[in-house]
Structure formats: C-alpha cells, structure tokens
Design a protein that fits this description.
single chain; seven-stranded mixed sheet
Length: 115
C-alpha cells in the first residue's frame, strides 16, 4: 500500500488549505493516521492524528485551527487547515500506523504560508 499526499501550496496568512492523504488500497489492522510536518531546519513533528476508533489529537500549536478527518470509503484522510500562520510552513507528511503493515509514510506536500 502506498500513500499519496496532496493539497499543499502557497497561501497568505489567515488563509486555508485542505490536505489529502489517499491510500492505494485498504489498510488492515489500522491503528492511526497522522499528519506530520517538517519546517526548514527543524525536526519532523506530529500535527494531528486520528485513531482507528476515531479519536483525534492535535499539537497545541494547531488546536482550534486544524481538523483531521477520514473517509473510509475513499481510503483517505484529510487535514483542514484554517487561519494559517507563517509558522505553519513546512512539508506535510501523512503516516499510517498499522499492526499488519507497520508504519507507512506518504511522500509529503509543501505548505508555504506568506506573511
């Protein structure tokens, strides 16, 4: 199974973007799907995660602005990002954690927020 992330782009501060992460097939033993980001010169950090039971969790820096959701029919997970800030700039990656397949990473999509 491969993950395809998309939806990144250039947006002004205060704007919105919606990222998509689509799996090429069904993922068995799904534990969680997360969105991570890596800003230039910084370590990759967890932004948002949704478990197989639907529980969500967010980094403090994005609470109230970002929302993670999934579509089981489309094998997709989305990250709605509102009120974007320049500090949100980075490459966003999705990752699936599965008890069957282990961790699977998508290729990343670049988000640039201009001030």
């Amino acid at each position: 199974v491969q993950l395809q992330a998309s939806g990144g782009g250039l947006v002004q501060a205060g704007g919105s973007l919606r990222l998509s992460c689509v799996a090429s097939g069904r993922i068995f033993g799904l534990n969680a799907v997360g969105w991570y980001r890596q800003a230039p010169g910084k370590q990759r950090e967890l932004v948002a995660v949704v478990t197989g039971r639907g529980t969500t969790n967010y980094a403090d820096s994005v609470k109230g602005r970002f929302s993670i959701s999934g579509d089981n029919v489309k094998n997709a997970v989305f990250l709605q990002m509102n009120s974007l800030k320049p500090d949100d700039t980075g490459v966003y990656y999705c990752k699936v954690s599965s008890s069957v397949s282990g961790d699977i990473w998508g290729q990343g999509t670049l988000v640039t927020v201009s001030s």
